[in-house]
Fold these 2 entries.
Entry 1:
Amino acid sequence: PKSRFSTAEATVVLRENGKTREKTLTMGTLNPQVKAVEYAVRGPIVTKAGDIERGLQQGQKHPFTEVIKANIGDSHAMGQKPITFLRQVVALCSFPELLDSSSFPEDAKQRARRILQGCGGQSLGSYSASQGVDCIRQDVAVYIEQRDKGVPADWDNIYLTTGASDGIVSILKMLVSGQGRSRSGVMIPIPQYPLYSAAISEMEAVQINYYLDEDNCWALDINELHRAYQAAKEHCHPRVICIINPGNPTGQVQSKKCIEEVLHFAYEENLFVMSDEVYQDNVYSPDCQFHSFKKVLYEMGPEYFNTVELASFHSTSKGYSGECGFRGGYMEVLNLDLEVKAQLVKLLSIRLCPPVSGQAAMDVIVNPPLPHEPSYLQFHKEKSAVLGALAEKAQMTEQILNTVPGIKCNPVQGAMYAFPRIFIPPRAFVSLLQSLGMSPDMMYCLRLLEETGICLVPGSGFGQREGTYHFRMTILPTTEKLKVLLEKLRDFHIKFLKEYAPLEEPKRSEDDTQEALKQFR
Amino acid sequence: PKSRFSTAEATVVLRENGKTREKTLTMGTLNPQVKAVEYAVRGPIVTKAGDIERGLQQGQKHPFTEVIKANIGDSHAMGQKPITFLRQVVALCSFPELLDSSSFPEDAKQRARRILQGCGGQSLGSYSASQGVDCIRQDVAVYIEQRDKGVPADWDNIYLTTGASDGIVSILKMLVSGQGRSRSGVMIPIPQYPLYSAAISEMEAVQINYYLDEDNCWALDINELHRAYQAAKEHCHPRVICIINPGNPTGQVQSKKCIEEVLHFAYEENLFVMSDEVYQDNVYSPDCQFHSFKKVLYEMGPEYFNTVELASFHSTSKGYSGECGFRGGYMEVLNLDLEVKAQLVKLLSIRLCPPVSGQAAMDVIVNPPLPHEPSYLQFHKEKSAVLGALAEKAQMTEQILNTVPGIKCNPVQGAMYAFPRIFIPPRAFVSLLQSLGMSPDMMYCLRLLEETGICLVPGSGFGQREGTYHFRMTILPTTEKLKVLLEKLRDFHIKFLKEYAPLEEPKRSEDDTQEALKQFR
């Protein structure tokens, strides 16, 4: 066949008869929307970390003996043990013969029986309805009502999802329309979790950045929302505002007042609100409390509660259970137009249903053992242990990082990450880094990985104010491993500073770090 | 805020202050690509069936006492029992304390230990790599090599997926590019499984129909491929050909010669081949055999095997296990350009990973008990029972349907469906149906549902030659229920014919039906 693409674009295959044949799918013919997508949480640094890890296993020499992955919120991979009750229920659902076993507690069996009753043929192997298993959606609604102190929740508004990501992408997909100046604009925080920028880019929507206030513990500033909105109106049609609370990668927990302001703004400007609340159980700072957007909307009165279109998202992957692999999640969607709702269900039905074992895991999270039930004590103990350790590690991470000259870390009020600012001496990137076409924070994280085995994600993967540099690290390694990580990071950073800014004297000394570490021993 | 949309488009909300406020997301502002999507397998007939089912439960009167759902390939919902070994492995992975239990066989424990070794923190709750757990991908490669009698399979080409649908959509997404006449065209069979048309429509690719030959047992005719390709070249850039083998909804099993012709055609025209082989274990006709596209490509010689870009798809949902709810699957992608491959992994990484319990289920399907292992006998017995019953029901469905005047059904050689042609008297749709803006087969299925409780999918949901009408029904109900279904369907069809074509004498009588049914008693 004759060549369809220039050889610059095409991968040319030499045929046996001496003729060439280009591949059908090449970088030249690849969907440009796919090409444009970026997702740093599993980006080049992480790929490199995997290569190094395999190298170590094969006996390659590195200046370290293990790779410490602090790039992704994957609790179990970092050693957290599953919640026993949750796994009992999933095992019972998977192999119902165990319902006759005396080694499973009655409350776990009762949950499993109820879930199986809701499944076609009483099997986890049936497709569920596209919105999810009815009784699990009902349990979600009850959970939300209790969480929100009685604000009504209708299970008809609940959709089970394949992790939160799936729900977020589905809702965004509904909202993208128009061309040119009327193309949908989506307001997202900067820094953000890169699922948002990836989905926006893939759908060719317009990304509208509103910057969180790093100097004010990454708080959302309503004036910044107005600024971003007004500027964006010139070239697109802003239709959605996304909020991540508690924040990812920033770890801040929003105040009730702040949420009210956002909702008032969304009401006035007719914006659809997407509230990513997957870290709702991960609040560590005693000064902070999780307020759901829905509850705040309710308290603003019926004019708001019956009007503002709000989708909120939750997941099995975070919180205290950390069950990422099950890909469980739900979304609650308020005030959706009825015809649009039918369209949403149609859209979801193409993928048939979310994984039913993930739905079962979600059920346990919204319907945990009650005080009078046999599994309550163990469940409560396991849950508290996980959340207590996370709270300690959140505090430790902030404090240790702040003893390092040239690193400044806001309090990790919630979620699972620190997003410290790092000062990279101008000489470092002027002389060396930019020549390689790499962002300075990417080069920083790459060197950190190569020299210490620590795998973090560069701030540029989440977005940051121009001229500022950060990295995201999880607080998920065990306390012991986290200490090692923080000390190695400190040493690396000081060495890095000395190399590129030898004349500047570090303001804080190693003694500070050791002093700070003491309290966590 | 001032109104942004005309009231014809917008859902207007009356505010308390008397002003109106339109919703942000309305049928007028909804993503038009979402609006355009259709998915009949869970379409309006199925929604109606759900309503009727709930009505029956609440005591509403209908001319029947139960809804029989033959609309979707959901084996467990229709009463098929899970394969014990598969569920044992999943339960062991979910709750590893069971590894100490003496009530689980050693081979199941060995599978579970191996899978857990491959998971971060040895937990099903960790994210896997975006391509899936390494050792499961290795097992898939070994399975493919054995299935294909030694044709080499590289586990680096294996991607675990969230059911087959997920893989199909991901590959299609990569392949869509260009504008106007250079927009990607995707060749799909008609009739087709509507995931394809839905994905094509959502991505605004160009759908190129090639018609399967109903008069020749739904075989794929190479001349029809050429016709469709040549016609499409005028207005788009055909870049992909999709094949479903065994066929859905048509149940045909492709001959080796036919597959060779398709692959030669794809080679000549530089088409990317997507081969949907989820029914590879569902072949019933003794004259037919499943040939994988990959094996045939291999046997065509290295010029083909090293050149043609081929993605093939498999799933836990079909075959003999019918584990739809776990959303497990894999794809094997051959001859993918290396840079494009990195882009595919990037795209998959945004959704993090397929459900890990589904990956575990997939592992059992590709790595079942061996003859010397303790679970072999029971596994083999269960597998044979499922496949034997399906083969019997395939034959029964075809034979009974062919005793009904005005219904003509091709042999159900494989898969899980019959797709018979129904003759709808012109009076039926001229007088009544078209006035309601409904396709005649949709109206037929709706009346069937309302009068008998049988839920089928109209042929128009899959595509059919103009002027012909069909429905898709699964062969999954139990033998007893399937008999009831077929008899009710027969009576309905004859009544329908009498109503709209009273002068035509039915050519076959009820005696034929009863005679045919006898052999299945």
Entry 2:
Amino acid sequence: MSAKRQLTLNLFIYPGGHHEAAWRHPNSSPDDLLDIAFYQDLAKRAEEATFDSLFFADGPVLADNIRYASRFRVEPITWLAAIAGVTRSIGLIATASTTYFEPYNLARLFASLDHLSRGRAGWNIVTTSAGQAAQNFGLSEHPAHTERYERGREFVELITKLWDSWEDDAVAADQASGLFADTSKIHFVDHIGRHFRVKGPLNIPRSPQGRPVYVQAGSSEDGRLFAAQYAEAIFTAHQTIESARNFYADIKKRAAAFGRHPDHVKILPGISPFIGSTEAEARRLEEEFDALIQPDYSLTQLNRMLGIDLSSFDLDGPFPRHLLDRDGAIGVASRFQLVADIIDRENPTIRQLIQRLAGGRGHYVKAGTPEQIADEIQLWFENGAADGFNVMPPWLPGGFDVFACEVVPLLRKRGLFRDHYEGTTLRDHYGLPRPESLFATPVRASA
Amino acid sequence: MSAKRQLTLNLFIYPGGHHEAAWRHPNSSPDDLLDIAFYQDLAKRAEEATFDSLFFADGPVLADNIRYASRFRVEPITWLAAIAGVTRSIGLIATASTTYFEPYNLARLFASLDHLSRGRAGWNIVTTSAGQAAQNFGLSEHPAHTERYERGREFVELITKLWDSWEDDAVAADQASGLFADTSKIHFVDHIGRHFRVKGPLNIPRSPQGRPVYVQAGSSEDGRLFAAQYAEAIFTAHQTIESARNFYADIKKRAAAFGRHPDHVKILPGISPFIGSTEAEARRLEEEFDALIQPDYSLTQLNRMLGIDLSSFDLDGPFPRHLLDRDGAIGVASRFQLVADIIDRENPTIRQLIQRLAGGRGHYVKAGTPEQIADEIQLWFENGAADGFNVMPPWLPGGFDVFACEVVPLLRKRGLFRDHYEGTTLRDHYGLPRPESLFATPVRASA
């Protein structure tokens, strides 16, 4: 056991990489983006670097700017199951929507992933922000933010009961007596709520971790409340250490108010590192990527975050601040504030704002030497801004390799990051307890 | 290319094996039933035996007789994705319900499975017969048989459009011009039906097979119509070659009436073989398994198939034929007729009927030498009863190994079965065409 507090590192895999023009760069291989071997190789490298976990975003709708970028979405649970087949230790976190899945189906998909990966599954719980998703599910309109979170809470309460519906020792498999399962340890969940009515039990025995690790990424007021109550890890976007510290303190306090141990909520800000042997070289690399940006793509992204169509404005003119509807943000709520803060702080032209956001869609982009990146990580980690990082390589796989080969050894040398896995499950890596079943019967005194 | 018509062989994997008491037999390893390595090893052996495919059944509800047998259900799409990671050629068929999935979600799960397996996915289309499933999805009652099939047809029409919504060459990935996808080749499906309203397109490029192979297993009137119209392979249960021949001729005729090529509907009856070096040894093996039957379990199975509670009857008394409601079968419709035929033909006691059904839940159980099993397969194959078989080992993995080692070489020697894979996809193995997208634009003359 390490005595020193350890960083949690997650690899966030985005087809092509996180820079919005990454797929166009000669370092990228856009022909491999649907090839499972590409992702399996990447996962093996992340496992060699003893990363805690890797992660895929998701949403049940096609991005309307697919013309310009590799924004298709393979389904992450299946994708991670194929990755589980060629890895042994690394955690596997899939995004899935509480608005557009049926709880019983999703409970089965994750329970199976946790079984087949021997306890490495995590669920990034999202309510889906893209309104067009509704049209793929027969809804006349996308449920409002508050409504989605209300359904999300009921969904999590219900799916937790389903994952707990078999006590850990319900399977007897006693060949001699013929008792396969002790049905007194398998429970109906009998859930009756506003959104769901589910009897249960699940038809899969309890999985190695009991439940997958609950991950969350919303930073709106609803999102923070939800995260503080349920999330065991939070992916979050901050441009400055001050913003991250405020978020960190707020979430830990809220979690404690829910009676939770603050260490059981890992705060993982995103970082997208451009790494060079000098800072100037790193900046040149970032500029190479920025030169490949297609403004038509970027403007649709901005429109999504801010609810403003900027296509008729001069790219090199000032951002039209009067259009920011600060009271009625209709885009992705948590990103609205972040982008508005950048505009207030930096007063950029539209083109400058586009470049500012191209690397990580609002996440922190840092160009520097390996030492500078490691210093920044250490600074945030040791000053109440982060329990670790959601590492978002600008391009793949090279953008991850340079982090693994140049930055990870520095973090290890400083005693901040493991050089081997001590446990076998994602809960082990994150230092999270394995939850007991809600239905577990208290230990009886022996007769 | 083989000149001679070749058998299609599918391995039907049932946790523990197909004999209902298999998990109790010393040859079984009930502790491995949730261990993915057990299934991955089995898949590798099936691939060494050049089987066309392997298959998992499924249903979104826990069997009420789990006390007596290993009747949990891991989710098969995820399970097969993990198996895809360690195999290269064998087809991977997952069952999923048109009654209890959302089409957009299921389209994504299968498209991902087809991508990550490089074209090896198959979908066993079921409407779910177990009525209790409704209670896991907020429905006050399970939709009736005809209603389920109506929804199933609309589901298949819709999901086909989703899988076709990207033309094969829609992804350009042209780094120089910045064109990632040609949006003129990505289509809204704009489906508006009685059960679903889905705009599309799918958010995943078209998969290697275009669509997974469509498999079906219903044998009721609705099931046959559905199969003749959509299925490319049919799993079916017959106790006699006569019954199988009638079914075979009926389906091929119906398929032709739908304008389909009869060779593009593979008829695969189930066979559960007990194999011994003499017929007597094979029968002793079967008796060993039958001796482990728990009648309380078997009676719930019979109740499910016939809609009759026999628990108060003498097991060694005659089957109470007057209780058979031949006009209003409420159980699994296609199995009702099969079991009623056995009762009419053999006039068994209840215990004899239980033993008769224990091996394969109505599928054909055959005890014999490897030669006898191979003879039976050849007889059905060459006399209009089968295009191949759904092989259902009584126990696993040994029950499969003996078939692979003893029967497969005989089939090869007789020129009936491949000794290596000629293609790479499940469609290749089954000899099925790769469907063109419904939205494909006709080839234009070059300018």
